[in-house]
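Narrative summary of target 7.
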Amino acid sequence: AILLTLTHHRCVAAVRQEQEDAQEFLQFLVDAAHEEMVKLRSTLPPAAAGQDDSSSGVAEQQQQHEDDDEEEWSVVTKKNKAAVTRGREDLGGSSLLSAIFRGSIKSCVKAKGVKAAAPSITVQPFTMLHLDILDSVRSIEDALDHLTHTELINGYKVKGHEAGVEAEKVVKISKLPQVLLLAINRYSYSLDRGSSKLHHNVTYPLSMRLRPQWTSDDCPERRSAQYQLIALVTHHGRNASGGHYTAHVQQGDGRWLHFNDAQVDFVAQSKVLDQKPYLLVYHRA
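Modeled conformation, tokenized:
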């Protein structure tokens, strides 16, 4: 009933034959279901919601933190250096959906040549990780390397310095979700050509062990996290304004099903790995 309510206006659009983006729809569905569960949980007494009085107090404190978008605090890193941290991993409350899909990324900016400037760290939760496949990216591993590589920033402002300085920015995964949703950015935009689709192949493994360089130093299980591919969605079409979606989903017995509208067929594993995916779904092994 909740899912029917959440997707009502999307279903109306489908009846009208409007094009819907699979990534946007899945993100909407997960976010809306999470918000509905958090709202429902708040109407229940602590005992019925699986909370005690202390956890209820924690929830109230968490809400106060969420209302303050500019919250920041100082932390000491593993190398005993001070850093200013902003953001929270638990923004938006907790639910069954967030326990399954929510991870977090940590962005760290360090000014070069300014010893007194503390690194600036921003923590941001995610339920879907977007990966660029421009340039030399030819695999999911390449895309994760690109996401977490060090980026140079010019003109970075530091307190006490009028002129901008050079800085380094790096993004790492700081919390791993149980189900990892990878959105492949197959569309690019330019002023002269507008929106265009990237059709080149990007390989993806059935089993993927996350490399330590993709995760932050404080990420739990950073050296042992392994994910198994359980589903993927493919967009068929030359551009973003139209096309058709199909999906491959692994069953409990290990066999794969191919969904093409009302037609459902068993397919070989080799066929699953011969797609140009738009969405990849991995489960913690």
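The longest strand covers residues 165-175.
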